[in-house]
Amino acid sequence: MDSTLLVHGKSSDMTDTQPAFGASSLIVDIISICKSYLCQTGPAREAASICLSSLLTRPDMENAVLNSFVEWAMTILLSWLTLSEEVRSCLTVEYFQLLGILHCLFQIFKLGHRQKLLSFGSKLFSICLELTSISHQTAVRKLLTKLIQRIGMNFLAPKVASWRYLRGSRSLCLGSLLATDSNVGIEEPDNSLGNDCDEVSDEVEEALDRLITLLHDKDTVIRWSAAKGIGRITMRLSKDSAADIVDAVISSFDDSHADSRWHGGCLALAELSRRGLLLPDRLYEVIPFIENAIHFDVLRGQHSIGSHVRDAACYVCWAFSRAYSPAVMAPFTAAVTTALLTTALFDREVNCRRAASAAYQETVGRQGDQNVSYGIEIITVVDYYSIGNRSSCYTSLAHTVASINKKLNSSFLVHLQEAKLSHWDKHIRQLASKAVASLALIDVPFTLHLLSQLAMECTASNVNVRHGSILAMAELLFKLISHNVAVPSTLMSEIVEIVPNINKNRLFRGKGGEQIREAVCGLIESIARSKVPMATKQQVTYVESLNEHLRQPHEGIQLAARSALREFLYSYFSFGDSAPSDRLQKLTVLKYIEGLESDNNASVTRGYALALGVLPLRLVVQPVGRLHDVLKVLSISSNPSKKVGGEYDADTCKICSCFALHCIEVKTHFTIMI
Predict the structure, then answer these.
(1) Do 513 and 622 fall within a single domain?
(2) Rg from Cα positions in the chain
(3) pTM of whole model > 0.70?
(4) How many structural domains compose the chain?
């Protein structure tokens, strides 16, 4: 505070403050000084409000002094209601004074004696309700939320409900003992005094109604404050009234796309369970919502929302593990731990992965390793630091965890298929496809079932589902074939028909077509590396499809098509003593030579140049003179003065130069062999 104020004992702008009702001049001076600092923009405002609240709530302080200050504060609040919307939205002196007064009143109702505050509680409560309906600033609404809950608590006797659930001993050392003997250290709720609390007043009902509304607020801090307020007030209610509160909180999950409602509902459930207000018989109703919340992800435009909901759901699981005994949690432990591990390994956001890991560790510690299968072993794998790397979670840690507890493998695969292979983020879909392949050999029959489902989803209408399924199909097929897993012939036939069906249904067009083309190239490469048997007509269809991908004006697609073409030609057309058929030559080497010589599209010349560089030796050297033709066209196209469509194209020149050298090496090697 300003030292001059302390020296002189009064503020220059507080001359209207008079000693009231026998208050000493020191008290009046302190109040005057603190009032002057309630409109400051810095930390002095909060310091002044705390100083005032501590002074006015002293047991030896006269009621008249407190009443006088509250009357003055309510006058300021009422004057704020009369201001226009434009003025209220500005950062004026009155705005910061409002913050200071609300903070001070909140502290007074937090620290003060109930009997001294009841006289003006109703009037102040009605003013706060009006302020919440017109205020849009987050700071104001947060303080109003705190003040409303404190006023509501003031209308209830300060005693804890006897019906609440008490777990008993919370020692971590007893975790294993509690898991084996469910009667040790457990105190069940006493229902004999379930409705011994005072009658609920209208103000308390209005406060709870407003807090439940604020539980769905757009700002996280408001929802968090409202959740804590609901927990504090419910502590003083009867069992029946508390059951109504729980029903109201559960209704927050009715709208499956309202992230703020789900987030507020999770926070409220966590607060209720921490205080023993969510009785064990309600867990059967609540746990399914938490399992859905822990995977909450709603697409909005080009991104998704839901990380805060998933984080709050992990907090609920953490609270449940601490609040309930192993005997109570036993029916839900498997589902909860599976959901936590799925989030810890596969969530997109690192804070959610770490929150799930912390909740899982708390569950193992509180519920006992006997209740959580392989809990200690998995904790050492899914720790705070290891799950920081998202790629490692998908490609390494998931396989390690599933190998420790093989029962988790099917849950992981189902989650990857239903949530991650259709994720809005392309990188998540790519990682998910690798994760599916890494888990493939743990339970082969289930993997084959998954493979058949992916075969159907490769032609889905949703581009994300289609892209993820094609990626997973490519990874999974080669993984199974390379480990000599027998794939049913009918399923193989379905896989071979995926690419023709995509072409037939024109699924390369529209949004996401580039991603689908690149993924299809990967699938063709996987089919070729796996040497899946197919008819000659199907082979021709695949080559024609790759030729179309080579013409695309996207480098990623062209490189993927080149890699797939190389594997495909080497797998199906690189053997045989006779010269390749005319049809094959027209599809490949002749088509590429003609395109390099005469096509005016730079994308086409680049793609065909890439293709010439990966052709098998049989296609390049037979019939006699073919290698000379290839070298000639590459030499011409590598000339910097060569124009494509009337313009110079450096990329075509660079590619042709590289592959011309490669063809010269092939010619030299072939001449030596002859």
Answers:
(1) no
(2) 36
(3) yes
(4) 3
Q: Is the pLDDT of residue 664 over 60?
A: no
Q: Residue 28 sits in a domain of what CATH number?
A: 1.25.40
Instruction: Name the band, by pLDDT with cuts 50, 70 and 90, for residue 175.
Output: very low
Neighbours of 104 (CB within 10 A): 27
Placement of tokens 């001076």 in the chain: 29
* Residue 316: closest CA among 341, 284, 348, 294: 294
* CA end-to-end span of the chain: 99
pLDDT tens readout for residues 288-340: 999 999 999 988 877 889 999 999 999 999 999 999 999 999 999 999 999 99
Beta bridge partners of 166: 187
Could you tell me which residues come within 8 angstroms of residue 256 by beta carbon, excluding any fewer than 6 positions away? none
In a domain, 493, yes or no: yes
**423 and 475 within one domain:** yes
3-class secondary structure, 237: coil
Percent of the chain at pLDDT exceeding 70: 86
d(CA 200, CA 213): 19
> CA nearest 180: which of 374, 370, 373, 372?
370
In a 3-state reduction of DSSP, which class is residue 674? coil
Kind of pairing between the strands at 643-644 and 298-300: unpaired
Range of the domain at 464: 407-572
Tokens (6 digits) for 113: 């004696």
Strand bridging mode 298-300 / 303-305: antiparallel
311 within 8 A of 352, measured Cβ to Cβ:
yes
Among 336, 311, 339, 338, smallest CA distance to 323 is for: 336
Helix (H) or strand (E) holding 647, with range, is strand 647-648
